[in-house]
Write a structure and sequence with these properties.
The protein is of the alpha+beta class. The protein has one domain: Double Stranded RNA Binding Domain. The protein contains three helices and five strands; from the N terminus they run E-E-E-E-H-E-H-H. The N and C termini lie far apart (about 90 Å).
Length: about 150
């Protein structure tokens, strides 16, 4: 029971204000859900496989690169995002849940990580650390057995 993309809303899927993805870049397939489900489990295809090709999408290039760099098992090696949703009993709710997960994944790539500026320890902190090391060394030296030479 594959579903065509025309069944999705004809308007673009909003990720955040100013960032939208075209419904044509997302393909949805209905599948049978696994697990308990009563009498309907073998008759109704309510689970959803959502595929989103990162390269084909109209996302800006920096967002595409950050999305591909995210270490997530839903992002395949060929640059396709594969999301399976079967937590709800109806196809419509599973489809909405899959879109929401895709939206959250893309939002992770939208936020640019802050650049880390390495810092140097203060001179007083270095001095304090070295003094502590020498005190500890003296303490250990005092625990050595006394030899006849000394």
């Amino acid at each position: 029971m594959p579903e065509s993309n025309s069944d999705i809303n004809s308007n673009h899927l909003s990720i955040k204000p100013g960032l939208k993805i075209a419904p044509e870049s997302v393909s949805i397939r209905q599948i049978r859900a696994t697990g308990a489900g009563g009498q309907n489990v073998n008759k109704v295809s309510s689970a959803v496989h959502l595929r989103f090709d990162i390269e084909v999408s109209a996302l800006p290039e920096p967002i595409k690169n950050r999305l591909k760099a995210i270490r997530d098992r839903r992002i395949l090696a060929n640059g396709t995002v594969l999301i399976k949703s079967q937590q709800h009993r109806t196809y419509v709710r599973n489809r909405e849940a899959a879109f929401e997960r895709l939206r959250e994944l893309i939002l992770q790539a939208v936020t640019v990580p802050a650049r880390r500026i390495p810092t140097r320890p203060k001179k007083a902190a270095v001095r304090k650390r070295l003094d502590a090391k020498s005190r500890h060394s003296q303490l250990k030296r005092g625990r050595r057995p006394v030899s006849d030479d000394e």
